[in-house]
Prior knowledge:
Blueprint: H1 16-26, H2 29-42, E1 46-47, E2 60-61, E3 76-77, E4 93-98, H3 99-107, H4 114-125, H5 137-148, H6 154-164, H7 177-186, H8 192-203, H9 205-209, H10 213-220, H11 224-235, E5 249-256, E6 260-265, E7 268-272, E8 282-283, H12 285-294, H13 300-340, H14 342-347, H15 358-365, H16 369-376, E9 380-383, E10 386-389, E11 397-399, E12 405-407, H17 408-421, H18 430-439, H19 446-455, H20 461-464
Parallel strand pairs: 2-3, 6-9
Antiparallel strand pairs: 1-8, 4-5, 6-7, 9-10, 11-12
Helix pairs in contact: 1-13, 3-4, 4-6, 7-8, 8-11, 12-13, 13-15, 15-16, 18-19
Amino acid sequence: MIKQGLELKQQQKLSPLQIQTIKLIELPIQELEQRIRTELEENPVLDDSPDPDKPEEAKDVSLDELTDDGDIPAYKTRVSNWGKDPRPEYNTFSVRQSFTQSLTDQLGYRNLDPHQYEIAAFIIGSLDTDGYLRRDIDSLVDDMAFRAGIQTDADEVLSLLRVIQDFEPAGVGARDLRECLLIQLRGLRQTPDVINAERILEDYFQEFSNKHFQKILSRLSLSEEDLKRAMARIVKLNPAPGGEVDYTYTDQAQQIVPDFILEEHDGELSFTMPRFSVPELRINKKYADLLLEAKGSSERAQKEAATFVRQKLDSAKWFVEALKQRQNTLRRTMSEILAYQHDYFVSGDEADLRPMVLKDIAEKTGFDISTISRVVNSKYIETHFGIFPLKYFFSEGMENKEGEEVSTRELKKALQECVDAENKKKPLTDEQLVEEMGRRGYKVARRTIAKYRGQLGIPLARWRKEL
């Protein structure tokens, strides 16, 4: 018996414009400039300079006027989505390179095809601030298809994850602490101490975590001295290769241009988006002439040439519109961040930094969380108290004893101060740190102390003890 049925599936497919906009949103200003230069080189109908010989023929028009059946009224179009920068020679600033950008740069040295590169870049963008991939592989596969139109499977994602796990800093891309530490050990010279450390983490990680050292000694037939040396190796490893507090900068310096400049006038805060080496886009006169000549012509060669030009015009229209949407998205997102963190931007005092997560800004702007994540990635703002990545302003919150919400950044700062002030001959246990934080006015659970301690790179009390 043959059964027939109708099954309805809801599927969202991103348009070429949406995909291009998403890719442009992710780019910091300098990479955006390079992307525009590449588009100018690859699309012959675009031109970044007016015709110096016939300036009288150049009239401002819209790309939308260049349709299949409409006349072409002029040879030039401008993208006016950038304001004039009153400081044309804007200074750059030297900052340490962002963690995400460092990984992306390393990706460029691998022999990957464009499809593999897109998948690997998506994985990098999915790493948390510690450098871990805490997402399920299958959900990552689904998200790539839904959000970016990338078709892949779990095997391909795992294969490219292993590529990323070979990057610096060692341990990046791990899915848990055990894998993170093992990745680092496998990159070291395989001495007896390193080999013993690998055996402990591979086969007796639970015993290691629970400090059942006698079980490890007996099952691996190690001497106490062997165990001490192996433990010394493990203790030196980095449990959070991505870092946390400063959002994972490496020591590699790069010159950056802030995407936003904070300004204050009569107590009112605002910001500008400085235009820096971003060329204006115009339709190349040569190709506009070709369309004019082909209009009404019956010659096949001219019609084919006109078809080619129109295809390039469509591509140019998508690119220009994507640039406009990128600018609008960044502006709206920064406006909401500025409003949400108003007191902090006035004072520059970290204590005024409100707890804020991506969802908060997504709800304010109407954009989805993945869009906000792309906006804040590798973007910077210059303030009167320093230059900061937008990620700096995001953190979860907890309550203090007065019931007031404080940011995790403030809590971590207080925790670091507690550890710095402790007696190193009798370092504070996590339970004692809970009490000390309580005396400072913060209600924090022991598991939260352990989590923040790990993110700050602070080892357990017995490993902080000094003779």
